[in-house]
């Protein structure tokens, strides 16, 4: 069994078993052997849920996701091994983290390997996030359903061979596999950030010093438009303004807008009808509530040609943490001694990043009269 399978098994056990920790054996020798094995484990870390009551409250009360339904998404099926309950899907965005998907495609598990990021979420953002998500059902911030962290020391954790923290979040691409089976057009997606910042991989020597594989990890560019009615646009802008205000107040930068576009099925109806493409919009958890239409389930464009989904991701990079402060110092020295290239998206101020992010979001929307 390889590294990915060991990591998957540790995540599944944390979700499906109480606190992710086995009951202590009645035999002292067996207990000591279990402790010994856990310490020398390289990839299969013992994980525990962090603030489980808070996330359970969000799932049950505000997102109407029952405990059994949630846990069943992480079950391997009758006779199956725990590691097959999650499928590794590699890198889905700009952050470079490892992703897993549940077999039913409802949830994603994303590793949060950097100490500066998981400590920021745990110590600074977790409580405001939980309170905000409970009060704002139309928020575009990705819905985090659980936060897992390594319990105790192990060689794998000490040497960084396996990520010590993971988040479980709802999957905005939920339904894509079923759409493929129906023979529908492939869904398109973009991981969007303001591209006017200084990106060394792109901007030093016109990118000649960096491989195409590395440059492909930079933020995408969306060259089309999201065509919305005025009411749809007002709701979209209201949500992202509130969401980014929360992030800026807690020093977060470098978050992205994950945008999904689907073609609506050809139907003999008014293309501007809200019913166009309604069969592509899921009406069951984890995407709801609120009831469709929403940016999690899908918003039908004003011209009836596309369905759009959107979520704000990767909001774990905070300016006051040690690694971001060190990166800011390096870029400041670069601008002072080598080239006045300006700030990177990870070294700018939270308010300035929010301003450019909102400008980017407004720039991709086109409003059409009802």
Automatic annotation (TrEMBL):
Region: Disordered, residue numbers: 266-296
A GO term, aspect molecular function: 1-phosphatidylinositol-4-phosphate 5-kinase activity
Any Pfam family: PIP5K
SMART domains, A to Z: PIPKc (SM00330)
SUPFAM superfamilies associated with the record: SAICAR synthase-like
Keywords: ATP-binding, Kinase, Membrane, Nucleotide-binding, Transferase, Transmembrane, Transmembrane helix
Stated name of the protein: PIPK domain-containing protein
